[in-house]
Amino acid sequence: MMSFPAVLRDRMSRPDWLSPRVLRTEVLAGLVVALALIPEAISFSIIAGVDPRIGLFASFTMAVTISLTGGRRAMISAATGAIALVLAPVARQYGVDYLVATVLLGGVLQALLGMLGVARLMRFLPRSVMVGFVNALAILIFTAQLPYLTDVPWSVYALVAVGLAVMVGLPRLTTAIPAPLVAIVALTVFTVAAGIAVPTVGDQGELPSSLPVPGLPSVPPTLETLRIIAPYAIAMALVGLMESLMTAKLVDDITDEHSDKTRESWGQGIANIVTGFFGGMGGCAMIGQTMINVRSSGARTRLSTFLAGVFLLILVVALGSVVAMIPMAALVGVMIMVSVGTFDWHSVHPRTLRMMPKSETAVMLATVVVTVATHNLAIGVVVGVVVATVLFARRVAHLVNIDSVLDPDGGTKIYRVTGQLFFASSNDLVFQFDYADDPENVIIDLSGANIWDASTVAALDAIETKYRQRGSSVSITGMNESSKQRHAALAGRLGGEH
């Protein structure tokens, strides 16, 4: 037992993140992430059809707020492409004020869903869907870099190659400074000193020169406004939560730490409400920047997330002229390394593909193909879950067996049913009995089976009806307690005779 003074000293000791080594890691990680956020936020603003400053301010407020409210330490939330795609029609048809109103309503919905426990639905995501999500994400991160590598001077390719070489080789020498930060600084200094003309961050859009100002959107508080923004707010809430929770699960696996998914859910809502209040375009967790923070830079605390937002604001407002000189080639190299590190190469190894059940591989591929085709992770995950459910139901449906035994006196026949009885497996149950040739007494033994739904009860009703029409009596025996309760509640009440 620790003495009271020892306990007091332990409680009053400084947090882990204040140790010099951890603090250095968190600060440098936040700086690298901030640099990587700038071109992404500008690009996503263009996708949403708004001023780049709206995306940059959204990334600042999302990162700072989620560092305090989120349930997953070291995860980065900011303006994202998925949210930009959802909100683009609002901005295009109704203007920025309606977009901001949508963000505010979407944040409220996320907070409500979080408090209602929507995070618990994550347990229904199969591993094959998760692998497909990760692989699709890696592909999307890589393909998002291709426009920066098309119709550009040859020197861009040389710079990307040098940046990749630095990020691969430097960690073998030292991990004191994040390799992505070294690559960004070195390539920027080289291009400026040598006067090499290549696309830069400044070419992507205007950087803000002032701080964001809080306020409410100028929209009429009417039911018509709600009718306009509600569908987009619902879509934003669901897409944002799905991406954030799946990213949190991925980081859990990388860090071997459990995160509070419920807190992360309502924390995302609070972050979007704050972002909307400051006129931002909303967002959610960012897998690419999170991987830079957690995997490439080794960050593990909320400090890195908080500093990513703070550094972002400082860089674009106070040091905008310096940031504008960063060559896009440096940031492209960082994101290529992120995509390579994110992809689950083990999942596509020939030995793994031979060992893995074909249904698992099909689910993974379906998730990847749909996500890459739609550029929407939420749609890909939903399709993957549906495919996994259908294949699982189909597989389980074939695990129902029916054996029959005729008593020596020939007056009773016993059918023993084993397996899981639900809509997929019980649809053919009616046709597994020999109604015409069976004796007057029939016993259906369900001691090796489970009744899961109304479809099975309806099938048993149909079997009993067919035997009664031929003058035979049927007894159903051996049901476990849950099956017995379900059968008693529904038998004879489902209507219609088969």
From TrEMBL:
<feature type="transmembrane region" description="Helical">
    <location>
        <begin position="228"/>
        <end position="248"/>
    </location>
</feature>
<feature type="transmembrane region" description="Helical">
    <location>
        <begin position="181"/>
        <end position="202"/>
    </location>
</feature>
<feature type="transmembrane region" description="Helical">
    <location>
        <begin position="362"/>
        <end position="392"/>
    </location>
</feature>
<dbReference type="InterPro" id="IPR002645">
    <property type="entry name" value="STAS_dom"/>
</dbReference>
<dbReference type="Pfam" id="PF00916">
    <property type="entry name" value="Sulfate_transp"/>
</dbReference>
<feature type="transmembrane region" description="Helical">
    <location>
        <begin position="98"/>
        <end position="118"/>
    </location>
</feature>
<dbReference type="GO" id="GO:0016020">
    <property type="term" value="C:membrane"/>
</dbReference>
<protein>
    <submittedName>
        <fullName>Sulfate permease, SulP family</fullName>
    </submittedName>
</protein>
<keyword id="KW-0472">Membrane</keyword>
<feature type="transmembrane region" description="Helical">
    <location>
        <begin position="53"/>
        <end position="69"/>
    </location>
</feature>
<feature type="domain" description="STAS">
    <location>
        <begin position="402"/>
        <end position="498"/>
    </location>
</feature>
<keyword id="KW-0812">Transmembrane</keyword>
<dbReference type="InterPro" id="IPR011547">
    <property type="entry name" value="SLC26A/SulP_dom"/>
</dbReference>
<feature type="transmembrane region" description="Helical">
    <location>
        <begin position="154"/>
        <end position="174"/>
    </location>
</feature>
<feature type="transmembrane region" description="Helical">
    <location>
        <begin position="269"/>
        <end position="288"/>
    </location>
</feature>
<dbReference type="InterPro" id="IPR036513">
    <property type="entry name" value="STAS_dom_sf"/>
</dbReference>
<dbReference type="Pfam" id="PF01740">
    <property type="entry name" value="STAS"/>
</dbReference>
<feature type="transmembrane region" description="Helical">
    <location>
        <begin position="130"/>
        <end position="148"/>
    </location>
</feature>
<feature type="transmembrane region" description="Helical">
    <location>
        <begin position="308"/>
        <end position="341"/>
    </location>
</feature>
<keyword id="KW-1133">Transmembrane helix</keyword>
<dbReference type="InterPro" id="IPR052706">
    <property type="entry name" value="Membrane-Transporter-like"/>
</dbReference>
